[in-house]
Amino acid sequence: MINIYSKWFGYSILGILFVCVVDLGRKYVLDKNMIQVDEMIIYLAMFAGILGFLHFISDKKCRNPGKIPNKSLFYIFLLALSVYAFNISFTRSIYYASDVTWPVIMISLAAIFIYLYSSLFFDDSPEFDWKILLGVLLTTLGLGIISVYFKD
Amino acid sequence: MVFKGIWVFLAVMCLFLAAISDLSRKYILDKDFVKPNEMIIYTAMGAGLFGLIHFLCDKKCRSPKKMNNKLLLLLLFLGFIGYSFGFAFTHAIKLAPDVTLVGMIVSLNIILLYLISSIFFESSPKFNFDVFFALILIIIGINIISKKF
Asked: Considering its fold, how many domains does chain A have in total?
């Protein structure tokens, strides 16, 4: 059973609220034609970069890049690349979709891939369990039903 | 059927990119290559760098001077909330026994997104009670996962 008093659960709940504000905010700005899609992608990334720099300056425990192994830096570079590519696809997707919920429903299916991969290949993750996969599939089914009942 | 159009292709791309991004974060943190805060900082700075390159390459992108202050403030706010999400998400996956759990909980944001967008957004479809059945299925699914872990 998940311990709802654990730190990671609290962070996840915070994550729900933050991602809602960001997704709805993006869709609101795009719907109002206040900005072009590419401009939003660019400025959000640049603001995130500035915030990251401010965080870097204020966090005394953060090592400078010279003290981090090249292999780790390379992984971080690839991660930043995938995050930026995700932002491009996501921002364009919510721009073209009639409702911001649609793309988010599809993206939530990533949980299935993440579960399969992490349980099969990650040493620290729990072993693969068919019952958990059933839970994931039920969740997906629920998301699918939402998509059918939505009147576009 | 609502799943048609260019946004579906883009959303499917997002699906795979999100899976790659989340799994990579968990892998790097599990192996202790970097600390969570270092990951948050350098990923944001890396994305900022890509944003700057994109800005220099895209001739149609207006400079900040040509935008109104209200819009820039809104973007700064969204950037801040996005950064806060990155902070909360990275710490959550570092502490959680499995990255899937965090992903599943965060995916519950669909419920809030649907409620808010259907009620308050003019261009979104109207609220529909039928979706509650589906939402119950989602919650049952989450409960099965949480009890079996």
From this structure: 2
Total structural domains in chain B?
A: 1
Query: By residue range, what is the domain housing residue B139?
Result: 108-149
CB-facing half-sphere around the CA of A116: CA atoms within 13 A: 9
**Phi and psi for A90 in degrees, rounded to 5?**
-65, -45
- The reported pTM is 0.82
User: Would you state the pLDDT for residue B101?
Assistant: 79
**Prediction ipTM score:** 0.81
Residues A66 and A16 occupy one common structural domain: yes
Task: Single out the residue of A112, A151, A107 nearest to residue B131, CA to CA.
Answer: A151
Would you call A52 an interface residue with chain B, using a CB distance cutoff of 8 Å? Answer: yes
pLDDT per residue as tens digits for the range B62-79: 988 888 888 899 999 999
Which residue of chain A has the CA closest to B37? A62
- The residue of chain B with its CA nearest to that of A55 is B41
Residues A84 and A13 in one domain: yes
